[in-house]
Amino acid sequence: MILIIFSKPQEITSENMGFHVESVILTVYRDGIVHILQDIRVNETIPDITLPILSGSAYNVLAIDENGSVLDYEINGSNITIFTLGATEVTLEYDTKQLTSMKTGVWTIFFKSPYNVTVKLPENAEVIFLSDAPSSINIEDKRIVLSLFPGEWEISYIFPIIQLFNFRVADLRVSPEFVRSGEAVTVSVLVMNVGEESGFYDVVLEVNGSVEDRRTIMLDRGESVRINFTISRDKPGTYIVEIAGLRGKFVVRETLVFPTHLIFLLVLFAAALTFSIILIKWRRKPSINRIFKRHPYLRQEEKEVLLFIAENGGRAFESEIRRRFPKIPRTSLWRLVRRLEREGIVSVRKVGYGNLVELKE
User: Which of 69, 111, 316, 337 qualifies as a cystine partner to 312, CB 3.0-4.6 A?
Assistant: First the structure.
């Protein structure tokens, strides 16, 4: 980590009585969208506070108090009024596209702030111009983080040339490993696009050194998907499967003839087991209506995303949600899911290179 510290004036105290802006964080994304996050301490006896917004156009606005309750607000020109009566802490966040511009490969962010501001530039960005010396410069998780004092700021940055297409194949699975003659075997791998652009990739399955099947897939940047192949063999023996240098095997055994009464008992047992599993899953299926009743403040787009997850068996990868709702910007959808996670409605966990979103209620 690199730390550079300069001596600059302290934050200008707000002239408004009853609240104090403790921190302002601007997170800049590669597409030029800026997410603004402000933490504010409030006198719980005042009915509302009014403060300037850093952009003439703000969307995805969200204001919550220290208990996570959503607060009402009004935007008038370049100011926002938040109705805070009874709250002691307020978190305000919103997105904007008006702070950044790009010309001939050079991105510039320009803004005026009455507060101390922390600016987090996109990953791998390289700063080529600063209108003034910042209070400090850090590097965190491949992001340049600038601490800036109140005033007018202009920052220009570029992105280095990187490999656009890069696919990774992992987690080869062969199931089942032991089968009878003619029974189906599923061979699967996890394919991940770890490059910076969408692209196509050929997934080739080989059995004992010969090409058995192939699939051509298209993945967005950062997207991952599991590809399944189904094969079978009649001749007993051991078969080696290979995909992108990953190797596995399955064994075909001799077919045994079972007495009729044993087959009948096995069928009954399998039917009973299947019915039990279906019954358990049915009982555990999340109730979307119950979620809506417990959280009446949910927005329409949040309800539609939750309904899609419920119809998908109560879980879905973020990439699946993006494909289902292409009109919602990627960053907005990411924050929508994080809001649902903070409310305890969903849980998000890493699976491979993707995020799996699951209903909790």
Answer: 316
Residue among 91, 72, 88, 69 nearest 343 (CA): 69
CA distances from 125 to 116, 221, 334 (A): 22, 17, 21
Residue in the structure block whose two tokens are 């049915």:
282
pTM exceeds cut of 0.90:
no
Please name the residue that has the structure tokens 């007018």.
Answer: 152
Report CA torsion sign: 308, 169, 244, 247. Answer: negative
| Exposure string over 4-14, b if 16+ CB within 10 A, otherwise e | eeeebeebeeb
d(CA 62, CA 70): 7
- Residue among 160, 169, 161 nearest 219 (CA): 169
Better-predicted residue by pLDDT, 130 or 256: 130
pLDDT digits (tens, 9 = 90+) for 107-119: 999 999 999 999 9
CA 55 to mean position of chain CA atoms: 25
What is the CB-side half-sphere exposure of residue 120 using CA atoms within 13 A?
Answer: 15
List, edge to edge, every strand of the sheet that includes 178-180. Answer: 178-180, 246-253, 237-243, 199-207, 210-219
Cβ contacts of 9 within 8 Å, gap of 6 or more: 149, 150
Q: How confident is the model at residue 185 (pLDDT cuts 50, 70, 90)?
A: very high
Which H or E run contains 342? helix 330-342
Q: Please report the domains of the chain, with CATH numbers, ordered by start residue.
A: 4-158 (2.60.40), 167-253 (2.60.40.10), 288-359 (1.10.10.10)
Give the pLDDT score at 33.
Answer: 94
